[in-house]
Amino acid sequence: MRGQVATLRSSRFQQLTMVRRPAVLRSLAPLLFAAVALAACATPVFAHSGGLRSAGRDPVSAPAWLFLLTGGAAVGASFLLASFVTDRSLINAIHGWSRSLAIPARLLRVLGRLVGLLALTSILAVGWVGPVTGVRNLAVLLVWVAWWGGVVALTYLVGNVWPALNPFRTLVDGARWAADRVGVGMLRYPDRLGVWPSVAGLLVLVWVEVTAPLADDPALLATVVAGYGAVTVAGGAAIGRTWFDRVDPVSRLLAAYGRVAPVARTDDGWSLHLPGTRLSDRVTVGLDETAFIVAVLYVTTYDGLVATGPWAAAVERAVGLGAPPIFIYSSSYLVGFGVALGAYLLAARAARRFAVTYCSPATLASRFAPPLLAIAAGYHLAHNILTVLALSPALASVVAAPLAPPQSPPTLVLPNWLQSVEIAAILAGHVLAVWVAHAAAYAVFPDRLQAVRSQYGVTVAMVGFTMLSLWIVSEPYVAPPFLAS
Prior knowledge:
mainly alpha
C-alpha cells in the first residue's frame, strides 16, 4: 500500500512539475498574444495637457534601440535573479519586515483638512476669476503640479496622505454630522455592485481629462472640480465612508498607490515596511478589484498614447478617411480597456496552464494584479517628475501673487542628465513588480517550480511594458489632434 501511495505521489508530482513540449508550444500562443496586447496598451501615466507636459521635456538623445533593449533585458534579468531566491523563509522575512512609527496622526489630520479646504477654495475661486492663462493660473498649477505631480507621488513614495487632505471627505464628515443631528440615516450600499462604480468613474475622469482642455481653461477646470465635488459630497452623505472605499475613483486610486509606499496605517497605528512589499499581501479580491487595478494601468496607457507622434499621425489619417474624431477617441478608449482587461485575464489563464494548478484563473488574476501598481507608480514618477521640477518656480510665483496680471511664468531649466531619472523610475517600477509577483507566486504555490512557471506570462508582458514605456518617454510631446484647445 505504501508503495502504491508513493507511486501515486510521484506520478502527481511529475504531472505538476513537468510540461511536455507540445503543451508548452500550445501555451505560448495565448501567452504571446497577452503580452503583445498588454504591451500595446502600456504607456506612462497621465500626460496632463499641453504646456504642462511639455515643460522640461526633450527627446532622449541615446539611440532608441539601445535603451529599449537594455530596459527589456534588465527586467528579464531581474526575473532570472528572483527565480534563484527559493527560500520561503527569506521571502517571508523580507515581506514581513516592519517597524512601528510614532506619528502625531491627529495633528496631521487637522492640518491636512485645513490645507485641503484651503486648496479647494483657491482652485474654485482663482479658477473662475483668476488669469485665463493656464500655466499662470493657481488652480491649474495646484491641480496638475502640486496635487497630481506632488501629492500622488508622495502617496507611493512615502504613504497615502489623501484621506487627511481630501477636502470632499471633510465636507462629507460635516454633512453626516449635520444629518445625524436631524435624524437622517444613511442608505445601504448594494454589495452586488462591488467596486465597479469606481472602475467606471476612473474611466470617465480620465476621458474628461484627455478630451477637455482642463490645463488650458482654468474656469472649465474649476467647473469640473466643482461638479466632481458635488457628486462626491452627495454620495458620501448618502452612504457614508463606504463611498470613498468602494465608489470614489480618486480615493481608490490613491489608496491603491498607497500600497506601494513604505509607510502604512495599521490597526495599531503606523508602521514602516519595505517599499512594495504590501502588494504581495494575501487579499481575496474579485473581478471588480482586478479590473480596477488593470484600469489604473490602462488609463495611464491611453493618456500617454494620445500625446505621441504616431498616435497623431494615425488619427489624422483616420479623420482624412472620414471618421469623426470623437468616435476615434471614444472607440479606441473603450475597446482598448476591454482588450487590456481581456489580455490580462488571458495571461492569468496562461499562468495557470504553465503552473499546472487547480487554482482558478480568477484567483491567479487577483493575486498577480497588485504588482501592476508598482509599474503604474514608476510610470507616474517618470512622467511627472520633470514637469514638477520645471514648473515649481511658476507654482511658487503664483502662490505668492495668485491674481497678478498674466505674464510669462518662471520655469526651471533642467539638465539633460535628469532624463535618466525617468528611465530609472520606469525600470525600478518594473523590477519591483517582478519581485512582488515572485513573492506572490510563492505564497500561492506549494511547489517551487510551479511558482516560477506561473510567472512566465507576467514576465513576458512586463518586458513588453518596459520597452514600450521607455519608447514613450523618449518621444517628444505632440498635442493630441482635433481636441479643443
